[in-house]
Amino acid sequence: MAEQSGLKNRGHTVADMEERRAAAEAFTGATLEEIARGGMDPETASKNIENMIGTTQIPLGYAGPVDIHGGYAQGRFLIPLATTEGALIASISRGMSVINDGGGVSVAVFQDAMTRAPVFRVEGVEHATRVMQWVDTHHEEIDYAVSTTTSHGKLVRIEMFPSGRSLYMRLSFQTGDAMGMNMATIASEAVCRLVETETGATLVSVSGNMCSDKKPAAINMIEGRGKTVVAEARIPREVVEGRLHATSEAIVETNYRKNLVGSSMAGTMGANAHAANMVAALYIATGQDPAQVVGGSMAITTCEDIDGDLYIAVRMPAVEVGTVGGGTRLPCQREALSMIGCVGEGKARKLAEIVATTVLAGELSTLAAQAAGQLGAAHARLGR
Fold first, then answer.
1. Together in a domain, 196 and 335
2. What integer is the mean pLDDT of 67-94?
3. pLDDT digit string (tens) for 26-53?
4. What is the pLDDT of residues 211-233, one digit of tens each?
5. What is the dihedral of CA 347, 301, 77, 341, to 10 degrees?
6. Which of 85, 189, 196, 304 is an active site residue?
7. Residue 276 three-state SS
8. Which residues have a Cβ under 8 Å from the Cβ of 157 and sit 6 or more positions away?
9. Structural domain tally of the chain?
10. Rounded to whole angstroms, what are the CA distances from 95 to 178, 213, 380?
11. Residue 281 to residues 49, 198, 300, 371: CA-CA distances in angstroms?
12. pLDDT tens-digit series, residues 286-305
């Protein structure tokens, strides 16, 4: 497949879509029959929705190809993206093309654990201390309670936070290739029943909001939730100036004053240009929980000028994705996953690396457009 600039290729006739889809099938080896049909048998969604009345369609396209050098994602990928925002896929494709000219993306997963944080009512500080001591000295019993609920999940960490007559217990689980929220919840309930029986603490809620699920939270920024992923690229000076019509110095300053200082002034969780855009489009396309875009939005984008070259990186502390269960069972979403080789077991970390790569490309393109004063013109041309 020819390299895409991302700023052309706008035809939307049936013939245009069929030609583009055939090219994607040839490039990826995936069969996109369900995507071509654009609907589904309601039975396939029986575990995903109640009171189903039909489907809502969102346009699906692809960005790339992009060269990825990761611990799990290795090679050249076309990235499926579902969005209603004109110019988004064009911008991401431009970023990917520029990144390829610099040798591709390097990306790694540094942590992988899904959390659930029950809250107990205790009698006071002394009782909280006794409960915490019991937990610290009875890991075998706790691990056994977890094992009765899942053969895929494993408890890897327990943190405890007392506050007056409340005791929060943040449990971290490895959940295999499932996103793992349901697995973590069921296993946490089993742990809570054991703690109640053995210590006299009273469970108030299996989720005490220190998890923290589907809400921006400093604890997830610091400790991570799901996969913590870092992606980076170095773009040569001549590529920055020739392809992005900006300088490394200008992009670095834009990132500093916009993403770092501006985000600090606003008090945002994360410091990025528009990470949620890429996360939402990829999550919807591949059957992830769209609410987990909250975690994906907490990315930090950093840029440096290295001898005229542009170094750009994103840190994503909460990439909450899976390749089994949930929406990944749905036919169109499963085909989208097949485009990037992320169907089934052994693929969740690969998907997380692809998420971070896509965010990096989108951040690069948007920062460059803003540094060059082109953002408004691009949206006027492609987004109206």
1. no
2. 96
3. 999 999 988 888 777 778 888 888 888 7
4. 999 999 999 999 999 999 999 99
5. 10
6. 85
7. helix
8. 113, 170, 171, 172
9. 2
10. 30, 30, 19
11. 20, 46, 19, 24
12. 999 999 999 999 999 999 99
> What is the domain-level CATH number for residue 140?
3.30.70.420
164 Cβ neighbours under 8 A, 6+ residues apart: 124, 125
Looking at residue 148, the DSSP 8-state letter turns out to be T
Q: Are 44 and 98 part of one and the same domain? A: yes
Cα separation, 202 vs 257, whole angstroms:
48
Q: Are residues 93 and 234 in the same domain?
A: yes
Same domain, 79 and 140: no
The verdict on 255 and 338 lying in the same domain is: yes
Secondary structure tally for the chain: helices H, strands E: 15, 10
pLDDT at 4 over 50: no
Residue 174's domain comprises: 118-205
If asked whether residues 362 and 255 sit together in one domain, one would say yes
Give residue-wise pLDDT tens across range 142-196.
Answer: 999 999 999 888 999 999 999 999 999 999 999 999 998 999 999 999 999 999 9
Among the listed residues 67, 177, 223, 289, the single catalytic one is 289
Cut 0.90: pTM above it? yes
Same domain, residue pair 67 and 149: no
Paired tokens of 47: 């575990």
- Given 69, 138, 152, 379, which residue is catalytic? 379
Active site residue 85: yes
Residue 301: CB atoms within 10 Å: 27
State yes or no: is 245 an active-site residue. no
- How many residues does the structure list for the chain? 384
Q: Would residue 265 count as lying in a domain?
A: yes
